Each structure stands twice: as structure tokens, then as C-alpha cells.
Automatic annotation (TrEMBL):
All residue ranges annotated as the S1 motif domain in the record: 126-194, 210-236
Gene Ontology molecular function, alphabetical: mRNA binding; structural constituent of ribosome
Gene3D superfamilies for this protein: Nucleic acid-binding proteins
InterPro entries, alphabetized: NA-bd_OB-fold, Ribos_protein_bS1-like, S1_domain
Family from the record: Belongs to the bacterial ribosomal protein bS1 family.
GO BP terms, alphabetized: translation
A Pfam short name: S1
Key words of the record: Ribonucleoprotein, Ribosomal protein
Record PROSITE patterns: S1 (PS50126)
SMART domains tied to this protein: S1 (SM00316)
Name the record gives this protein: S1 RNA-binding domain-containing protein
GO cellular component: ribonucleoprotein complex; ribosome
Length: 308
């Protein structure tokens, strides 16, 4: 299991908490070259990050705040946006504050360089890894895949059921699983998520014809209304004039047809509601995928992802 976790996943571990018990514990962490994590509380006027270390406050100088800051490849918003959030770092030395209090000197950049070298560059397509949602854009979901290093899940790779915005599926700071789709020459990692949410058969097995179940309206077309039953299973209901995208629905399942990968539905009721997103149900949550086939063996067409 990798020690290079997304920021925020290490802060409450026993090993991490023990490092902040005293100055001597911090000295020991420095000697061992240990990766620590705690909350950034201030970004000063020179864009240095001040970090709460329990027995004292440390400083991450601006150029040590993130990979690429010194070269101008990374904007300072990458530092400013970390205030009031956990950050990882190594202690590189000790100084003193103007009032005489000890001041550990810290580097987040060193941790990110090590994470890139020892973890990210060793990933292969198909690897299932931890990630943490950082922010959402219309085109996709940005996640931290280790020590604050960002990667993107394109919106069409989030689930089989199409969504209008990643916020329909995720929230900031949510811990999720992702699959490495490819590694680019510049070190960027391309991610996907839908392969972890189950095949058509796995999702369809959760339902039976004749049941009335909960759903979410994802698309309204002239020929019918697509209602999501799970993130990787949607069905088609007959057209109605009183239905809008994003509404919740109760739907009657007329039939499930594996060879056509179809679920035929009847909308019983449709309404506005502000339910929280349900926790992600992963059919696969660890290990490695060489190939994933969504479609059943009897289906008329094959939907698959090849990783190796």
C-alpha cells in the first residue's frame, strides 16, 4: 500500500499525531526524513504558508509550496488555496520566530517530488488508486492522487450514466477510488472512474421487473426520458411534458433486456428534491484492471475498456 496518500488522509493517523507531541518529536521526524501532515492556517503577503504543528508553527516558503512554483509553471493559487486545509511536508531545518519561538522550515515541494518519483511514475494503466476530490468543473473532476498532485477525471469517464456536471456525482473533499487510464510523457496521469461502478449485469441484478424504485432524471429527449437507477445503469421511460433534468422520480420497471442493455421504465411520479448524493458503491475497489467489459456476453455490441 502506498504511503503517498492524497492530502488529508494522513492527518489523523497515530504516527502523524505523535510527531507533533513535542519539539523533540519534530526533531526526530526531521532526522528520519518523515512525511508529516497538518493544517495550513495562514498564507502571508509573500505567499509563504504558515502551518499549525501543535507545539509550534512552521513555515513553508513560497518556492517550497508546490512543484513548479519556482519555475513559474504553477500559479500561486496552488498555495493560497491550501489555507485551512491539510498539507503534507518534510522538515528541512529549524529557525526561530521574531519572538524567539522555534520555527520549523518545511517543504511541500520535496514531498511532491518524492511522490512523483517513487509512486506516480511507477503507476501503470489499470492500477486502482486512492484519490480525493479537490474541485469540480463542467468538464470534469479534479482530484489529488498523492501529496497534493492533481489529476483529472473527464466528465464522460465518471460513470456510464451521463451527468450534466460532476457535482451530480461528487463533492469537494470526497475520498474516492480511480483507475489509471494512461501516463503521459509530461508526467500527467489520465484517470477514469466508471469501470469501478459495475457492469450492466452487476447493476441490473440489483433490480427486478415489476419493482417500483427510485431514480434521477438525467436526460429528456423527444423520444423518451432517461432515468438513472444507478451511476452505471439508466433506463428509458416514455415522454412526458412535466419532467425536468435533475428531478427525482419513482419508476416502475417494465423489463430488463440484457442483449440490448436496456431497462424499460414507466415514471410513476417525478418531483424536485435536495437529497444528498449516496455513497459510491464500488464493485471493484483495489488491485489492477487489464480489461473491463460493461456489456453482457449476449449483448449486440461490446462496450469495454482495455488498459494493458
Amino acid at each position: 500500500m502506498s504511503i503517498y496518500k492524497p492530502e488529508g488522509m494522513m492527518i489523523d493517523t497515530l504516527s502523524n499525531r505523535q510527531a507533533f507531541r513535542s519539539l523533540s518529536c519534530l526533531q526526530e521526524a526531521f532526522t528520519q526524513g518523515k512525511i508529516l501532515e497538518s493544517r495550513a492556517v495562514v498564507c502571508d503577503s509573500e505567499h509563504n504558508l504558515i502551518v499549525d504543528m501543535g507545539c509550534c508553527r512552521g513555515i513553508i516558503p513560497r518556492v517550497e509550496g508546490a512543484l513548479g512554483i519556482a519555475q513559474g509553471a504553477t500559479r500561486d493559487i496552488a498555495i493560497i488555496s491550501k489555507v485551512n486545509k491539510p498539507v503534507c511536508y518534510k522538515i528541512t531545518g529549524f529557525s526561530t520566530h521574531p519572538d524567539g519561538a522555534p520555527c520549523p522550515i518545511l517543504s511541500r515541494r520535496l514531498v511532491q517530488e518524492e511522490c512523483t518519483r517513487e509512486y506516480i511514475m511507477k503507476l501503470t494503466p489499470g492500477d486502482i488508486i486512492d484519490a480525493k476530490v479537490t474541485h469540480l468543473e463542467a468538464f470534469g473532476c479534479f482530484v489529488d492522487i498523492g501529496c497534493g498532485i492533481a489529476s483529472l477525471i473527464p466528465i464522460d469517464a465518471i460513470s456510464i450514466s451521463r451527468i450534466s456536471h460532476p457535482r451530480d456525482r461528487f463533492r469537494p473533499s470526497q475520498e474516492i477510488k480511480v483507475v489509471v487510464k494512461s501516463l503521459e510523457e509530461n508526467g500527467r496521469v489520465s484517470l477514469t472512474h466508471k469501470e469501478l461502478l459495475g457492469t450492466w449485469e452487476e447493476n441490473a441484478s440489483l433490480f427486478s421487473a415489476g419493482e417500483t424504485v427510485a431514480g434521477i432524471v438525467r436526460s429528456v429527449e423527444d423520444y423518451g426520458i432517461f432515468v438513472e437507477l444507478t451511476p452505471n445503469l439508466a433506463g428509458l421511460a416514455e415522454p412526458r411534458d412535466d419532467v425536468a433534468i435533475g428531478q427525482h422520480a419513482s419508476v416502475y420497471i417494465k423489463s430488463l433486456i440484457p442483449e440490448k442493455m436496456k431497462a424499460k421504465l414507466i415514471i410513476v411520479d417525478c418531483f424536485d428534491a435536495q437529497y444528498q448524493n449516496t455513497p459510491v458503491n464500488y464493485f471493484i475497489a483495489e488491485g489492477h484492471l487489464s480489461r473491463w467489459q460493461y456489456s453482457p456476453p449476449c449483448a449486440d455490441r461490446i462496450i469495454e475498456t482495455i488498459f494493458d
